[in-house]
Write a structure and sequence with these properties.
With 284 residues, the protein is of the alpha/beta class. The protein has helices at 11-14, 41-53, 75-91, 103-111, 129-136, 161-178, 198-206, 208-212, 226-231, 245-257, 268-282, and strands at residues 20-26, 58-62, 96-99, 116-119, 140-143, 186-189, 219-220, 262-265. Strand 1 (20-26), helix 2 (41-53) and strand 2 (58-62) form a beta-alpha-beta unit. Bound molecules: pterin-6-yl-methyl-monophosphate. Pterin-6-yl-methyl-monophosphate binds next to strand 1 and strand 5.
Length: 284
């Protein structure tokens, strides 16, 4: 198979249908909701198989946490965490997306069998990323991002969050196309929770039509995020991350009704059900 051939494109990208469910596999000691749970390679592999058995269309594998405030992992460690898991799950036929901001990691993982690159920085963190992905010929998720985790909360300032994020994401799309990434391989994500307050997140979720107008499939990651913990807070404080899945799924229902391409989630079964309901509602 040559890089850039259509054979590389997973059927999930080619076929517009019900919203795809992308199961999250964080091979990290410190992600915000499941840090440490799947850090060991054998446990990560088992979690990947469970995600597939639950019916996920795609597994999104990450070896670097992007949780607010966290210091970066170096590339050797990022690769050590994920490469054996990528190789094993790809050999079992899974459609794998790699959650990385590094070109070097993207290239190694696609060579190991991964099908999609999911870059939360939209090409801003590593100047080599966009041209590397163009050469690989794989689909690319460009997320709206302003800065690394240590600085992002300070940058959650917008004149109008919907138009500002739309414009900044459109710039990333233009950069991706200019670098040679095919228009049929580009997916956009407004980046819920990245340099955004809870109010910003809700405003964006209310106006996804503005993002759909950019003309690319959309991916959304709301699963277990802080704004849901705050929405469901009690006198004891925010709802803990692992108890936010019903709220995530409620949003996924509406996203599926709106024809969003994919949702990135922790609780796969629950979100498949939510997507089935949303998709059915969209049929009128
Ligand atoms: N969120 C996280 C990580 N990767 N990728 C995309 N495309 N969109 C997101 O919203 C997103 C992401 C943070 O969540 P995690 O720590 O549970 O992985």
């Amino acid at each position: 198979m040559t890089a850039g051939s259509n054979a590389r494109l997973p059927h999930v990208v080619l076929n517009p249908g019900p919203t795809q469910v992308m199961g999250i596999l964080n091979v990290t000691p410190n992600s915000f909701s499941d840090g440490g749970d799947w850090f060991d390679h054998d446990r990560a592999l088992q979690r990947g198989r469970d995600i597939l058995a639950e019916g996920a269309h795609i597994i999104d594998i990450g070896g670097e946490s992007t949780r607010p405030g966290i210091v970066r992992t170096d590339s050797a460690e990022e690769l050590r965490r994920i490469l054996p898991v990528v190789r094993a799950l790809a050999a079992e036929g899974a459609v794998l997306s790699i959650d990385t901001m590094r070109a070097e990691v993207a290239v190694a993982c696609v060579e190991a069998g991964a099908a999609i690159i999911n870059d939360v920085s939209g090409g801003l963190a590593d100047p080599a990323m966009l041209s590397a992905v163009a050469d690989l010929g794989v689909p690319y998720v460009a997320m709206h991002w302003r800065a690394h985790s240590t600085q992002m909360d300070d940058l959650a300032r917008y004149d109008d969050v919907v138009t500002d994020v739309r414009d900044e994401l459109a710039e990333r799309a233009e950069a991706a196309l200019a670098a040679g990434i095919g228009a049929d391989r580009l997916i956009l994500d407004p980046g819920i929770g990245f340099a955004k307050t809870g109010e910003h997140n809700w405003a964006l979720l209310n106006r996804l039509d503005v993002f759909a107008e950019l003309g690319f499939p959309l991916l959304l990651g709301v699963s277990r995020k802080r704004f849901l913990g705050d929405l469901l807070a009690t006198g004891d404080g925010p709802r803990p991350p692992k108890e936010r899945d019903s709220a995530s799924a409620a949003i996924a229902t509406i996203l599926a009704q709106q024809g969003i391409w994919a949702v990135r989630v922790h609780a796969v079964r629950q979100h498949l059900d939510a997507v089935a309901v949303g998709h059915r509602l969209s049929r009128r």
